[in-house]
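Hi all, a correction to my earlier message: I attached the wrong file for Pyrrolo-quinoline quinone repeat domain-containing protein. Here's the right sequence:
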Amino acid sequence: MPGVRTLEEVLDHDGPLAEGPLREVAAGIADALARVHAIGLVHGRLRADQVLLTPYGPRVTGFAGRADTDDGGDPSEDVYAFGTLITLAGGGASCGELGPLLRRCLDPDPGRRPTAVDVDRVLTPRPAVLTVPAGVDDSADVPQEARAEDPPTGRGLTRRRLLVGGGFALTAATVTSAGVAFARYAGDGRSGPGVRWRRSVEGRVTTLQVFDNVAYCTTTDNVVMAVGTETGVALWTARTESMVWSQPVVSGTAMFLACVAGQVTALDPSSGERLWQQHAGDRILGAPVLYGSSLVVGTRDDRVVGIDMTQGAQSWQWSAGTPHGGVMPAVSETGGDLLYLTHSDGTVGAIRDDRGEPRWSTRLDAPIARPARAMGDLVYVVSGFTLVALSVSTGEVRWRFQGAPDMTVPVVTENLVYTTDVGALYALDARTGRERWRQPVGARVPSPVALVDGTAYAGGTDTLYAFDPVTGGRHWRHGLPTYLTAAPAGAGKVLLLGTAGSELVALET
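and the right structure:
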Protein backbone atom coordinates (compact mmCIF):
# COMPACT_ATOMS: atom_id res chain seq x y z
CA MET A 1 0.00 0.00 0.00
CA PRO A 2 1.48 3.39 -0.99
CA GLY A 3 2.69 5.54 1.90
CA VAL A 4 2.83 2.68 4.38
CA ARG A 5 5.84 1.83 6.54
CA THR A 6 6.14 -0.43 9.53
CA LEU A 7 6.89 1.06 12.92
CA GLU A 8 10.13 -0.94 12.86
CA GLU A 9 11.20 0.74 9.59
CA VAL A 10 10.39 4.22 10.95
CA LEU A 11 12.32 3.62 14.17
CA ASP A 12 15.32 2.14 12.35
CA HIS A 13 15.46 5.00 9.84
CA ASP A 14 14.36 8.02 11.87
CA GLY A 15 14.83 7.10 15.51
CA PRO A 16 12.38 7.37 18.43
CA LEU A 17 9.03 9.11 18.00
CA ALA A 18 8.25 12.50 19.49
CA GLU A 19 5.75 12.51 22.34
CA GLY A 20 2.71 13.57 20.28
CA PRO A 21 3.07 10.98 17.49
CA LEU A 22 4.05 8.37 20.10
CA ARG A 23 0.75 8.88 21.91
CA GLU A 24 -1.23 8.61 18.69
CA VAL A 25 0.53 5.39 17.67
CA ALA A 26 -0.08 4.02 21.18
CA ALA A 27 -3.77 4.93 20.98
CA GLY A 28 -4.16 3.12 17.66
CA ILE A 29 -2.50 -0.04 18.96
CA ALA A 30 -4.50 0.01 22.19
CA ASP A 31 -7.74 0.37 20.24
CA ALA A 32 -6.87 -2.66 18.09
CA LEU A 33 -6.00 -4.79 21.13
CA ALA A 34 -9.19 -3.77 22.93
CA ARG A 35 -11.26 -4.85 19.94
CA VAL A 36 -9.63 -8.24 19.54
CA HIS A 37 -9.66 -8.95 23.29
CA ALA A 38 -13.39 -8.14 23.35
CA ILE A 39 -14.09 -11.14 21.12
CA GLY A 40 -11.99 -13.50 23.20
CA LEU A 41 -8.80 -13.51 21.13
CA VAL A 42 -5.27 -12.22 21.66
CA HIS A 43 -2.59 -10.91 19.34
CA GLY A 44 0.15 -13.07 20.77
CA ARG A 45 3.15 -11.56 18.99
CA LEU A 46 2.96 -7.76 19.07
CA ARG A 47 6.18 -6.26 17.68
CA ALA A 48 7.25 -3.14 15.81
CA ASP A 49 7.17 -4.98 12.46
CA GLN A 50 3.49 -5.84 13.07
CA VAL A 51 2.41 -2.17 13.26
CA LEU A 52 1.76 -0.41 9.96
CA LEU A 53 1.89 3.39 9.92
CA THR A 54 -0.52 4.42 7.18
CA PRO A 55 -1.95 7.76 6.01
CA TYR A 56 -5.09 6.78 7.95
CA GLY A 57 -3.36 6.03 11.22
CA PRO A 58 -1.62 2.99 12.75
CA ARG A 59 -2.88 -0.50 11.86
CA VAL A 60 -2.00 -3.69 13.72
CA THR A 61 -1.38 -6.85 11.70
CA GLY A 62 -0.08 -10.37 12.32
CA PHE A 63 -2.69 -11.52 14.83
CA ALA A 64 -1.95 -15.06 15.92
CA GLY A 65 -5.67 -15.67 16.40
CA ARG A 66 -5.28 -17.56 19.68
CA ALA A 67 -8.15 -17.66 22.12
CA ASP A 68 -7.43 -16.08 25.48
CA THR A 69 -7.73 -19.48 27.18
CA ASP A 70 -5.22 -21.16 24.83
CA ASP A 71 -1.66 -21.83 25.91
CA GLY A 72 0.10 -18.47 25.69
CA GLY A 73 -3.18 -16.70 25.04
CA ASP A 74 -3.27 -14.32 28.00
CA PRO A 75 -4.49 -10.77 27.17
CA SER A 76 -2.19 -9.40 29.88
CA GLU A 77 0.77 -10.58 27.80
CA ASP A 78 -0.47 -8.41 24.93
CA VAL A 79 -0.59 -5.47 27.35
CA TYR A 80 2.98 -6.22 28.49
CA ALA A 81 4.10 -6.40 24.85
CA PHE A 82 2.33 -3.07 24.23
CA GLY A 83 4.21 -1.47 27.13
CA THR A 84 7.51 -2.82 25.84
CA LEU A 85 6.83 -1.68 22.28
CA ILE A 86 5.75 1.87 23.14
CA THR A 87 8.68 2.28 25.54
CA LEU A 88 11.00 1.20 22.72
CA ALA A 89 9.28 3.53 20.24
CA GLY A 90 9.72 6.41 22.67
CA GLY A 91 13.45 5.84 23.00
CA GLY A 92 13.39 3.72 26.14
CA ALA A 93 13.26 6.73 28.43
CA SER A 94 10.42 7.96 30.64
CA CYS A 95 8.15 8.62 27.61
CA GLY A 96 6.80 11.78 29.20
CA GLU A 97 3.14 11.68 30.19
CA LEU A 98 2.85 8.08 29.01
CA GLY A 99 5.40 6.92 31.57
CA PRO A 100 3.01 6.04 34.44
CA LEU A 101 0.68 4.12 32.10
CA LEU A 102 3.56 2.18 30.54
CA ARG A 103 4.96 1.26 33.95
CA ARG A 104 1.56 -0.24 34.84
CA CYS A 105 1.59 -2.21 31.58
CA LEU A 106 5.05 -3.59 32.46
CA ASP A 107 4.10 -4.64 35.99
CA PRO A 108 5.67 -8.07 36.70
CA ASP A 109 2.33 -9.20 38.17
CA PRO A 110 -0.09 -9.81 35.26
CA GLY A 111 -3.05 -9.29 37.59
CA ARG A 112 -2.02 -5.69 38.24
CA ARG A 113 -1.66 -4.70 34.60
CA PRO A 114 -4.48 -2.65 33.06
CA THR A 115 -6.68 -4.23 30.42
CA ALA A 116 -6.44 -3.09 26.80
CA VAL A 117 -9.79 -1.33 27.25
CA ASP A 118 -8.37 0.54 30.25
CA VAL A 119 -5.33 1.60 28.22
CA ASP A 120 -7.51 2.64 25.30
CA ARG A 121 -9.70 4.71 27.62
CA VAL A 122 -6.68 6.57 29.05
CA LEU A 123 -5.30 7.35 25.59
CA THR A 124 -8.58 8.61 24.14
CA PRO A 125 -9.96 11.47 26.26
CA ARG A 126 -13.72 11.62 26.49
CA PRO A 127 -15.47 15.00 26.43
CA ALA A 128 -17.97 15.25 29.26
CA VAL A 129 -20.37 17.42 27.30
CA LEU A 130 -24.12 17.35 26.68
CA THR A 131 -26.50 19.74 24.99
CA VAL A 132 -30.22 19.33 24.51
CA PRO A 133 -32.76 21.23 22.40
CA ALA A 134 -34.14 24.50 23.68
CA GLY A 135 -37.25 24.07 25.77
CA VAL A 136 -36.44 20.55 26.96
CA ASP A 137 -36.13 20.18 30.72
CA ASP A 138 -33.46 17.57 31.21
CA SER A 139 -32.14 18.98 34.48
CA ALA A 140 -32.46 15.69 36.34
CA ASP A 141 -30.30 14.01 33.71
CA VAL A 142 -27.81 16.72 32.80
CA PRO A 143 -25.51 18.50 35.29
CA GLN A 144 -25.76 22.23 34.66
CA GLU A 145 -22.02 22.60 34.44
CA ALA A 146 -21.91 20.04 31.63
CA ARG A 147 -24.13 22.03 29.26
CA ALA A 148 -22.34 23.47 26.25
CA GLU A 149 -22.70 26.67 24.34
CA ASP A 150 -24.62 26.85 21.07
CA PRO A 151 -22.52 25.61 18.15
CA PRO A 152 -20.79 28.35 16.18
CA THR A 153 -20.87 28.23 12.40
CA GLY A 154 -17.85 28.08 10.14
CA ARG A 155 -15.26 25.62 9.03
CA GLY A 156 -14.68 22.70 11.36
CA LEU A 157 -11.30 21.99 12.87
CA THR A 158 -9.04 19.35 11.44
CA ARG A 159 -6.18 17.86 13.42
CA ARG A 160 -3.25 16.40 11.52
CA ARG A 161 0.29 15.98 12.78
CA LEU A 162 3.31 15.07 10.76
CA LEU A 163 5.11 12.08 12.15
CA VAL A 164 8.58 13.51 12.70
CA GLY A 165 10.96 12.09 10.10
CA GLY A 166 8.32 9.55 9.04
CA GLY A 167 7.45 11.10 5.70
CA PHE A 168 3.65 10.96 5.97
CA ALA A 169 0.77 12.59 7.80
CA LEU A 170 -0.71 10.72 10.74
CA THR A 171 -4.31 11.68 11.41
CA ALA A 172 -5.14 12.23 15.07
CA ALA A 173 -8.21 10.43 16.33
CA THR A 174 -8.39 12.06 19.73
CA VAL A 175 -9.24 15.45 21.19
CA THR A 176 -6.37 16.78 23.26
CA SER A 177 -8.57 18.44 25.85
CA ALA A 178 -11.41 16.53 27.46
CA GLY A 179 -13.34 19.76 27.82
CA VAL A 180 -13.57 20.61 24.12
CA ALA A 181 -17.23 20.85 23.11
CA PHE A 182 -18.39 18.93 20.08
CA ALA A 183 -20.22 22.05 19.00
CA ARG A 184 -16.86 23.58 18.10
CA TYR A 185 -16.52 21.09 15.26
CA ALA A 186 -19.08 22.31 12.79
CA GLY A 187 -19.19 21.31 9.14
CA ASP A 188 -16.83 22.44 6.41
CA GLY A 189 -18.86 25.51 5.45
CA ARG A 190 -21.04 23.71 2.92
CA SER A 191 -24.74 23.12 3.30
CA GLY A 192 -25.01 20.25 5.74
CA PRO A 193 -26.66 19.11 8.95
CA GLY A 194 -26.90 21.00 12.21
CA VAL A 195 -26.34 19.50 15.66
CA ARG A 196 -29.70 18.87 17.31
CA TRP A 197 -28.33 17.53 20.58
CA ARG A 198 -25.45 15.59 21.99
CA ARG A 199 -24.79 13.83 25.28
CA SER A 200 -21.89 12.07 26.95
CA VAL A 201 -22.12 8.35 27.71
CA GLU A 202 -20.11 5.98 29.88
CA GLY A 203 -17.54 4.38 27.59
CA ARG A 204 -17.33 4.26 23.82
CA VAL A 205 -20.47 3.41 21.90
CA THR A 206 -20.20 -0.13 20.49
CA THR A 207 -23.64 -0.47 18.87
CA LEU A 208 -26.38 1.98 17.94
CA GLN A 209 -29.84 1.45 16.46
CA VAL A 210 -33.20 3.19 16.33
CA PHE A 211 -36.60 1.59 16.91
CA ASP A 212 -39.84 3.60 17.16
CA ASN A 213 -38.03 6.94 17.70
CA VAL A 214 -35.90 5.52 20.51
CA ALA A 215 -32.13 5.12 20.13
CA TYR A 216 -30.65 2.07 21.85
CA CYS A 217 -26.90 2.02 22.40
CA THR A 218 -24.35 -0.16 24.17
CA THR A 219 -20.91 0.90 25.37
CA THR A 220 -17.51 -0.46 26.34
CA ASP A 221 -18.38 0.23 30.00
CA ASN A 222 -21.11 -2.46 29.95
CA VAL A 223 -23.87 0.14 29.69
CA VAL A 224 -27.12 -0.22 27.75
CA MET A 225 -29.06 3.01 27.26
CA ALA A 226 -32.32 4.09 25.63
CA VAL A 227 -32.48 7.72 24.51
CA GLY A 228 -35.24 9.73 22.87
CA THR A 229 -34.14 10.56 19.34
CA GLU A 230 -35.81 13.98 19.33
CA THR A 231 -34.46 15.24 22.65
CA GLY A 232 -31.48 13.15 23.72
CA VAL A 233 -33.13 12.56 27.09
CA ALA A 234 -32.20 9.21 28.66
CA LEU A 235 -35.30 7.03 29.02
CA TRP A 236 -33.51 4.31 30.96
CA THR A 237 -30.04 2.89 31.61
CA ALA A 238 -29.10 -0.70 32.39
CA ARG A 239 -25.86 -2.59 32.89
CA THR A 240 -24.63 -5.94 31.67
CA GLU A 241 -22.10 -8.32 33.21
CA SER A 242 -19.69 -7.85 30.31
CA MET A 243 -19.31 -5.83 27.12
CA VAL A 244 -21.84 -5.99 24.28
CA TRP A 245 -19.79 -5.67 21.10
CA SER A 246 -22.33 -6.89 18.53
CA GLN A 247 -25.67 -5.45 17.44
CA PRO A 248 -28.56 -6.45 19.75
CA VAL A 249 -31.91 -7.58 18.37
CA VAL A 250 -34.71 -5.13 19.21
CA SER A 251 -38.39 -5.97 18.84
CA GLY A 252 -41.56 -4.51 20.26
CA THR A 253 -41.45 -6.86 23.25
CA ALA A 254 -37.77 -7.41 24.03
CA MET A 255 -34.21 -6.27 23.43
CA PHE A 256 -31.86 -9.26 23.15
CA LEU A 257 -28.17 -8.72 23.91
CA ALA A 258 -25.20 -11.07 23.60
CA CYS A 259 -22.36 -10.24 25.98
CA VAL A 260 -18.85 -11.28 24.99
CA ALA A 261 -18.37 -13.22 28.25
CA GLY A 262 -21.22 -15.59 27.34
CA GLN A 263 -24.39 -14.09 28.80
CA VAL A 264 -27.50 -13.64 26.64
CA THR A 265 -29.91 -11.13 28.17
CA ALA A 266 -33.42 -9.99 27.32
CA LEU A 267 -34.48 -6.51 28.46
CA ASP A 268 -37.85 -4.80 28.34
CA PRO A 269 -37.30 -2.12 25.64
CA SER A 270 -39.66 0.30 27.39
CA SER A 271 -38.04 0.19 30.83
CA GLY A 272 -34.68 -1.61 30.62
CA GLU A 273 -35.91 -4.18 33.15
CA ARG A 274 -34.29 -7.59 32.79
CA LEU A 275 -36.73 -10.23 31.54
CA TRP A 276 -34.33 -13.18 31.60
CA GLN A 277 -30.67 -14.14 31.26
CA GLN A 278 -29.02 -17.29 29.94
CA HIS A 279 -25.36 -18.33 29.92
CA ALA A 280 -24.67 -19.66 26.42
CA GLY A 281 -20.96 -20.38 26.61
CA ASP A 282 -17.49 -19.18 27.52
CA ARG A 283 -17.45 -16.51 24.79
CA ILE A 284 -20.05 -15.32 22.30
CA LEU A 285 -18.86 -14.25 18.85
CA GLY A 286 -20.85 -12.08 16.46
CA ALA A 287 -24.41 -10.89 16.93
CA PRO A 288 -27.54 -12.79 17.99
CA VAL A 289 -30.02 -13.56 15.21
CA LEU A 290 -33.68 -14.57 15.10
CA TYR A 291 -34.12 -17.98 13.50
CA GLY A 292 -37.57 -19.51 13.58
CA SER A 293 -38.76 -19.41 17.18
CA SER A 294 -35.22 -19.18 18.58
CA LEU A 295 -32.66 -16.54 19.34
CA VAL A 296 -29.38 -17.98 18.03
CA VAL A 297 -25.81 -17.15 19.09
CA GLY A 298 -22.40 -18.59 18.19
CA THR A 299 -19.59 -19.32 20.63
CA ARG A 300 -15.83 -19.44 20.60
CA ASP A 301 -15.89 -23.23 21.08
CA ASP A 302 -17.82 -23.60 17.77
CA ARG A 303 -21.28 -24.21 19.22
CA VAL A 304 -24.42 -22.73 17.73
CA VAL A 305 -26.96 -22.27 20.53
CA GLY A 306 -30.71 -21.75 20.15
CA ILE A 307 -32.54 -20.02 23.00
CA ASP A 308 -36.28 -19.73 23.58
CA MET A 309 -37.08 -16.03 23.21
CA THR A 310 -39.88 -16.02 25.77
CA GLN A 311 -38.38 -17.89 28.70
CA GLY A 312 -34.65 -17.73 27.95
CA ALA A 313 -34.16 -21.49 28.19
CA GLN A 314 -31.68 -23.19 25.85
CA SER A 315 -33.76 -25.15 23.35
CA TRP A 316 -31.07 -26.67 21.09
CA GLN A 317 -27.42 -26.54 20.13
CA TRP A 318 -25.29 -27.68 17.20
CA SER A 319 -21.57 -28.14 16.59
CA ALA A 320 -19.61 -29.22 13.53
CA GLY A 321 -17.47 -31.44 15.74
CA THR A 322 -14.25 -30.02 14.29
CA PRO A 323 -12.54 -27.00 15.91
CA HIS A 324 -12.70 -23.90 13.73
CA GLY A 325 -11.76 -21.19 16.26
CA GLY A 326 -15.29 -19.92 16.82
CA VAL A 327 -18.54 -19.50 14.91
CA MET A 328 -20.88 -16.59 14.07
CA PRO A 329 -24.45 -17.17 12.77
CA ALA A 330 -26.41 -15.15 10.20
CA VAL A 331 -29.78 -15.42 8.47
CA SER A 332 -30.98 -14.15 5.11
CA GLU A 333 -32.54 -10.71 5.04
CA THR A 334 -35.05 -12.02 2.50
CA GLY A 335 -36.13 -15.09 4.46
CA GLY A 336 -35.40 -18.78 4.09
CA ASP A 337 -34.73 -21.78 6.27
CA LEU A 338 -30.93 -21.76 6.25
CA LEU A 339 -28.62 -20.58 8.99
CA TYR A 340 -25.29 -19.33 7.60
CA LEU A 341 -22.19 -19.88 9.73
CA THR A 342 -18.83 -18.15 9.46
CA HIS A 343 -15.87 -19.57 11.37
CA SER A 344 -12.73 -17.78 12.50
CA ASP A 345 -10.48 -20.09 10.46
CA GLY A 346 -12.11 -19.01 7.18
CA THR A 347 -14.77 -21.73 6.89
CA VAL A 348 -18.26 -20.73 5.72
CA GLY A 349 -21.19 -23.12 5.94
CA ALA A 350 -24.96 -23.46 6.03
CA ILE A 351 -27.20 -25.67 8.17
CA ARG A 352 -30.94 -26.19 8.12
CA ASP A 353 -33.23 -25.94 11.20
CA ASP A 354 -32.42 -26.77 14.82
CA ARG A 355 -31.36 -30.33 13.93
CA GLY A 356 -28.25 -28.84 12.34
CA GLU A 357 -28.63 -30.57 9.01
CA PRO A 358 -25.50 -29.50 7.06
CA ARG A 359 -26.11 -28.15 3.57
CA TRP A 360 -22.61 -27.12 2.46
CA SER A 361 -19.22 -25.95 3.71
CA THR A 362 -16.55 -23.87 1.93
CA ARG A 363 -13.07 -22.93 3.16
CA LEU A 364 -11.88 -19.45 2.16
CA ASP A 365 -8.27 -18.28 1.98
CA ALA A 366 -8.15 -15.93 4.98
CA PRO A 367 -9.60 -15.78 8.51
CA ILE A 368 -13.08 -14.37 9.10
CA ALA A 369 -13.71 -11.92 11.95
CA ARG A 370 -17.24 -10.76 11.09
CA PRO A 371 -20.61 -12.43 10.50
CA ALA A 372 -22.00 -12.94 7.01
CA ARG A 373 -24.75 -11.02 5.25
CA ALA A 374 -27.21 -12.92 3.06
CA MET A 375 -29.82 -11.67 0.62
CA GLY A 376 -31.50 -13.41 -2.27
CA ASP A 377 -29.30 -16.21 -3.61
CA LEU A 378 -25.95 -14.87 -2.35
CA VAL A 379 -24.21 -14.75 1.00
CA TYR A 380 -21.49 -12.12 1.49
CA VAL A 381 -18.45 -12.67 3.73
CA VAL A 382 -15.38 -10.56 4.55
CA SER A 383 -12.36 -12.87 4.50
CA GLY A 384 -9.15 -11.03 5.31
CA PHE A 385 -9.18 -7.90 3.11
CA THR A 386 -11.55 -9.48 0.55
CA LEU A 387 -15.34 -9.39 0.20
CA VAL A 388 -16.52 -12.77 -1.11
CA ALA A 389 -19.97 -13.64 -2.49
CA LEU A 390 -21.05 -17.29 -2.33
CA SER A 391 -24.12 -19.17 -3.52
CA VAL A 392 -26.60 -19.69 -0.69
CA SER A 393 -27.52 -23.13 -2.03
CA THR A 394 -24.07 -24.61 -2.77
CA GLY A 395 -21.39 -22.41 -1.17
CA GLU A 396 -19.73 -21.91 -4.54
CA VAL A 397 -17.75 -18.66 -4.77
CA ARG A 398 -19.44 -16.33 -7.27
CA TRP A 399 -17.11 -13.33 -7.03
CA ARG A 400 -14.40 -11.66 -4.98
CA PHE A 401 -13.57 -7.99 -4.39
CA GLN A 402 -10.15 -7.09 -3.01
CA GLY A 403 -10.17 -4.20 -0.53
CA ALA A 404 -7.82 -2.80 2.10
CA PRO A 405 -7.38 -3.47 5.85
CA ASP A 406 -10.36 -3.34 8.20
CA MET A 407 -13.06 -4.00 5.61
CA THR A 408 -16.41 -3.75 7.37
CA VAL A 409 -19.49 -5.99 7.32
CA PRO A 410 -21.32 -5.15 4.08
CA VAL A 411 -24.72 -3.53 3.82
CA VAL A 412 -26.70 -5.36 1.14
CA THR A 413 -29.58 -4.14 -1.00
CA GLU A 414 -31.30 -5.81 -3.95
CA ASN A 415 -28.85 -4.37 -6.48
CA LEU A 416 -25.85 -2.99 -4.57
CA VAL A 417 -23.49 -4.02 -1.80
CA TYR A 418 -21.75 -1.32 0.28
CA THR A 419 -18.63 -1.71 2.41
CA THR A 420 -15.83 0.46 3.79
CA ASP A 421 -12.17 0.01 4.65
CA VAL A 422 -9.36 2.31 5.78
CA GLY A 423 -9.41 4.13 2.46
CA ALA A 424 -12.84 4.29 0.89
CA LEU A 425 -16.55 3.57 0.71
CA TYR A 426 -17.37 1.13 -2.10
CA ALA A 427 -20.61 0.39 -3.92
CA LEU A 428 -20.50 -2.96 -5.76
CA ASP A 429 -22.90 -4.70 -8.08
CA ALA A 430 -24.60 -7.30 -5.90
CA ARG A 431 -24.67 -9.92 -8.68
CA THR A 432 -21.19 -9.54 -10.16
CA GLY A 433 -19.05 -7.70 -7.60
CA ARG A 434 -18.17 -5.09 -10.20
CA GLU A 435 -17.35 -1.74 -8.64
CA ARG A 436 -20.08 0.81 -9.41
CA TRP A 437 -18.41 3.67 -7.57
CA ARG A 438 -16.09 4.49 -4.72
CA GLN A 439 -15.51 7.56 -2.59
CA PRO A 440 -12.43 8.23 -0.42
CA VAL A 441 -13.20 8.64 3.27
CA GLY A 442 -9.79 8.03 4.86
CA ALA A 443 -11.04 6.43 8.06
CA ARG A 444 -8.49 5.53 10.71
CA VAL A 445 -11.07 3.13 12.13
CA PRO A 446 -13.71 2.50 9.44
CA SER A 447 -17.31 2.56 10.60
CA PRO A 448 -19.84 0.34 8.83
CA VAL A 449 -21.94 1.94 6.11
CA ALA A 450 -25.44 3.08 7.06
CA LEU A 451 -28.31 3.51 4.60
CA VAL A 452 -30.90 5.85 6.08
CA ASP A 453 -33.81 7.36 4.15
CA GLY A 454 -32.13 7.14 0.76
CA THR A 455 -28.68 8.34 1.83
CA ALA A 456 -25.45 6.38 2.35
CA TYR A 457 -23.40 7.50 5.36
CA ALA A 458 -19.76 6.66 6.08
CA GLY A 459 -17.41 8.00 8.73
CA GLY A 460 -13.85 9.18 8.12
CA THR A 461 -11.21 9.88 10.75
CA ASP A 462 -12.74 13.24 11.65
CA THR A 463 -15.59 13.62 9.16
CA LEU A 464 -19.04 12.18 8.45
CA TYR A 465 -19.89 11.90 4.75
CA ALA A 466 -23.31 11.63 3.11
CA PHE A 467 -23.54 10.17 -0.42
CA ASP A 468 -26.14 9.39 -3.02
CA PRO A 469 -26.31 5.57 -2.78
CA VAL A 470 -26.85 5.09 -6.54
CA THR A 471 -24.41 7.55 -8.11
CA GLY A 472 -21.92 8.05 -5.28
CA GLY A 473 -22.29 11.82 -5.50
CA ARG A 474 -21.48 13.54 -2.21
CA HIS A 475 -24.37 15.40 -0.59
CA TRP A 476 -22.39 16.93 2.26
CA ARG A 477 -19.67 16.39 4.86
CA HIS A 478 -19.71 17.24 8.53
CA GLY A 479 -16.64 17.73 10.72
CA LEU A 480 -16.21 15.57 13.83
CA PRO A 481 -13.71 15.75 16.69
CA THR A 482 -12.95 12.03 16.39
CA TYR A 483 -14.03 8.91 14.54
CA LEU A 484 -17.28 6.95 14.75
CA THR A 485 -17.35 3.71 16.74
CA ALA A 486 -20.68 2.40 15.41
CA ALA A 487 -22.69 2.73 12.23
CA PRO A 488 -24.98 5.79 12.20
CA ALA A 489 -28.69 5.17 12.75
CA GLY A 490 -31.64 7.34 11.83
CA ALA A 491 -35.22 8.24 12.63
CA GLY A 492 -36.98 10.70 10.34
CA LYS A 493 -34.72 13.71 9.88
CA VAL A 494 -32.54 12.89 12.89
CA LEU A 495 -29.28 10.98 12.38
CA LEU A 496 -27.61 9.46 15.46
CA LEU A 497 -23.84 9.02 15.81
CA GLY A 498 -21.66 7.30 18.42
CA THR A 499 -18.10 8.65 18.61
CA ALA A 500 -14.78 7.59 20.11
CA GLY A 501 -15.14 10.62 22.38
CA SER A 502 -17.78 8.68 24.37
CA GLU A 503 -20.78 10.65 23.28
CA LEU A 504 -23.98 10.37 21.29
CA VAL A 505 -24.66 13.08 18.72
CA ALA A 506 -27.89 13.81 16.87
CA LEU A 507 -27.72 15.68 13.56
CA GLU A 508 -30.68 17.31 11.81
CA THR A 509 -30.41 16.08 8.24
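Sorry for the mix-up. The chain has a mean pLDDT of 82.
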